[in-house]
Design a protein that fits this description.
Mean pLDDT: 89
Helix content: 40-55%
Strand content: under 5%
Shape: globular
Largest sheet: 2 strands, antiparallel
Structural class: mainly alpha
Number of helices: 17
């Protein structure tokens, strides 16, 4: 119990530090304007809206859409390269430890309300929705649908992203002029935000599970990222404690490095026999040894 509490406290501290780091322009919240310094051209590894007054960098999903929806469509090797670099080095560890919107969902889920378990068949289908969001809203629609001056639209940012809506609320609160310009689109996005907030109190990380296109991208690197979890099945006693504490409902004993795993470490902290470990780097000998132990017949 102490081990699990220590792990969660450590992770929460890292999440808070990351949120403060990526949104370190405190004056923006006070003055009600967006930071426009030189660091704004840099992609951060997390979903962090450009319109957030404190944001020191640019959201990778927003940057990707801005490039492919531009008047002269071009493929941005910088933006895609940064996303791939983050994915290869850390993968969905970014979701578990660095994402500010992931932190918000974690905190909301701590509210003492009855929790809901989504039907496994429905859950399995909904997990593919974030890949559809990535393909359709982030990539295809900005390329295919353009206005009279050949500009596309940042569909996910404009019509869906609850992180962006939340970030914009502080601007609206401090700028009466912006508040007067609000219309149907803002009401629509507020509805999405409210749904995500309410569902986060009942279901652990619903946005990460079902809607986040950045999580979908990082999930593609689950088997290849430098940071990996490993399960030593020769030690595993099949108690199922790892799966009971997993916020993403990962079947840890069968596929611990699935695309859905956010590498939060809860399974590792909960294991009573220390069968779950982690490796970082190109040396996967520990993981291979753990997997090979399954093939050895019991003596």
């Amino acid at each position: 119990m102490k081990k699990k509490l220590k792990q969660e406290t450590k992770r929460t501290f890292i999440q808070l530090a990351a949120a403060a780091f990526f949104n370190g322009y405190a004056a923006g919240f006070v003055k009600g304007h967006i930071f426009t310094g030189k660091t704004k051209i840099l992609c951060v590894p997390v979903l962090n809206c450009y319109s957030c007054p404190g944001a020191l960098g640019s959201c990778p999903i927003g940057s990707l859409q801005a490039v492919i929806s531009s008047r002269k469509f071009r493929f941005s090797f910088y933006v895609l390269g940064m996303i791939m670099l983050f994915g290869i080095i850390l993968g969905r560890l970014i979701c578990g430890f660095l994402c500010p919107f992931g932190l918000i969902q974690d905190l909301l889920h701590k509210i003492p309300l009855p929790k809901v378990r989504v039907n496994p068949k429905v859950d399995r289908i909904l997990r593919y929705l974030k890949y559809a969001v990535l393909l359709v809203l982030v990539i295809l629609l900005p390329i295919l649908i353009r206005n009279e001056v050949n500009m596309g639209y940042t569909w996910f940012c404009q019509y869906v992203c609850p992180a962006g809506t939340l970030a914009g609320l502080s601007l609206i609160a401090s700028n009466p002029f912006l508040a007067q310009m609000l219309g149907f689109l803002f009401s629509w996005k507020m509805c999405i935000l409210v749904i995500v907030i309410i569902s986060s109190t009942l279901i652990h990380r619903p946005f990460c599970k079902y809607l986040c296109p950045l999580g979908a991208i990082y999930g593609l690197f689950a088997k290849f990222s430098l940071y990996q979890l490993n399960l030593d099945k020769s030690k595993c006693v099949g108690c199922g404690k790892c799966e009971k504490v997993c916020p993403m409902d990962v079947k840890c004993t069968t596929d611990i490095n699935t695309a859905e795993c956010i590498r939060c470490g809860r399974c590792k902290a909960a294991c009573p026999v220390h069968a779950i470990g982690s490796t970082f780097g190109f040396d996967r000998s520990a993981r291979k040894a753990a997997e090979a132990s399954v093939e050895k017949p019991a003596e």
